[in-house]
Amino acid sequence: MKFCPKCGGPMVPVKKGDKIVLKCVKCGYEMPAPPDVLEKYKVTKKTKEKVVTTKVVSEAEKLGIDKEMLEQAKEEYYEFVLEQMGEYGE
């Protein structure tokens, strides 16, 4: 994965006319994409599910989430992280 030289944001491939460029999701900076960009940037899993992030888990008490829901969210987040680590570690 490439990161923006201006702001450090992640660069994602975007089709622009008949070419593919890498575009920063934060500031919009664009740069030419390497020829093998589509091989390196593949969506492996699409989901419509809502993913619980660490921010949600850490702010659960402020949001009024009960302890049982918090523990369930922590378990799901932990499983998700382990699954992602397994996919990238192979």
Describe this structure in words.
There is one protein chain. The chain is α+β, with helices and mostly antiparallel strands. The protein has 2 domains: about 1-40; about 45-90. The protein has helices at about 35-40, 55-60, 60-65, 65-90, and strands spanning about 10-15, 20-25, 30. A 3-stranded antiparallel β-sheet has the order 1-2-3, with no helix packed on it. It starts with 10 loop residues before the first strand and ends with a helix.
Q: Indicate the overall shape.
A: elongated
Helix vs. strand class:
alpha+beta
> How are the strands of the biggest sheet laid out side by side?
1-2-3
Following the backbone from N to C, one meets helices and strands in this order, namely: EEEHHHH
Count the helices. How many?
4
Which spans of ≥5 residues are poorly predicted at pLDDT below 50?
none
The rounded Rg comes to 18 Å
Largest sheet: 3 strands, antiparallel
Percent helix, as a range, is 40-55%
**How far apart are the termini?**
16 Å
Average pLDDT rating: 76
Q: Strands, helices and their partners?
A:
Elements: E1 11-16, E2 19-24, E3 30-32, H1 37-40, H2 54-58, H3 60-63, H4 67-89
Antiparallel strand pairs: 1-2, 2-3
Protein traits:
single chain, 90 residues, alpha+beta, 2 domains, 3-stranded antiparallel β-sheet, elongated
